[in-house]
Specification:
10 helices; six-stranded mixed beta sheet; alpha/beta; 15 strands; about 30% helix
Length: about 425
Amino acid sequence: MRIPNFPLIIPMLALVACGSTGGPSATTSAPALAKPAASAASASAKPVASGSGAPSTAAKPAAAGLGQPLTAKLQPNPQQWATLKDGAKKEGKVVVMGPGFPGLRQGFTEGFKKTHGVEVEYLGAAPGEALVRIQREAQAGKPSVDVYLTGSPSCWSLAEDGMIEDVSGSLVDPDILQPSVWRDGAPRLLKPSPKMPPNMACGIQGADWIMTDLFVNSKMVQPSAIKSWKDLLKPEYKGKITSHDPRVPGAGGATLAYVYSLFGEGFSKDLYAGQQVAFNADYQQLANSVGQGGFPIGMSLVQTTVEPLRKSGVPIERVFPEDGPGTTLGGFSVMLKIKNSPHPNAGSVFLNWFLSKEAQDMYERTMMETSLRTDVPHQVPEYVIPKPGVKYVDGYDPDFHFKYRVDAEAKVKEWFPR
């Protein structure tokens, strides 16, 4: 089954990295299904969750030396900062790779040049394409990219292959290391994967927001009708649900992993396979299909494509099931520094600038992902802002990712072979 092209296409490349993301040109499918196994709605292992209040990283911080958190490595160094800025001006430019949002490209190129007088060459690419390029160039000994804006899985995989640097050594600007301007009291360094050194920070995470798991067309399905994830198994919803394709990098895998962690493999198979969920890796088509009612229920839509439709009066509404309020993610806000890059000083300066109020303000407005800076006013939909007192699963915690998401994504490929 293929979602038709609706007239509400927004002229914007719609990508998201919920962990990581796929490209915009994939197809929709509802593969032929074998009879699903019986539901196993209880999970024996519980997912990693944050405490009450605004969510934080879920498990204890990874060690940096003798039991110290990774952030203990962050030290302001005015002299080094001055040296980096001088070196960046001599290099003349920085090459940044990231998602192909026009607003993001413009914000980076104009903002960084205005502040530091250095040109930005911005390469917009889907994660799969970006990873292949970075890996091939590293193997050839000719990296062309200085910094890469992506999600946590790319950070871990490139670090495990030795292709990126520990970013903590580059973060020296005293202005960005003030505890009062960060929700966690310091910039958030992404915790290492099990195969990485325990004291390595492969990337910095600039945002933290509630994953957009479940939406409905409110003219066709009352939001109050879905109080539990298990309500999606009702016979009347069979063939009426669409989702971002969890078989490719992106938002679909984030929602699948969360459901899998809560209710186990049996329920997840009953939902995705038993209810004949239609997959689509094009975020704009996905939002349009729910807004136009082709599929009245949508999983793993993203705010950058939903919000323009909502503002035009399209009846799309976010639903929070009581038995699963959601995960928090960093989206595309993880910045990596490529090893042996052509403009190492400019790359380091860009990392620091990305954590500035100026850059974070631009990023939040453009990507609709809630910045971790406390002095950036929220300019995002209310449904992505973490709520005090709610326990969320940290989808960017490596314990959760490698325990649930990796397994869940392997299973869904078995249920829906390509």
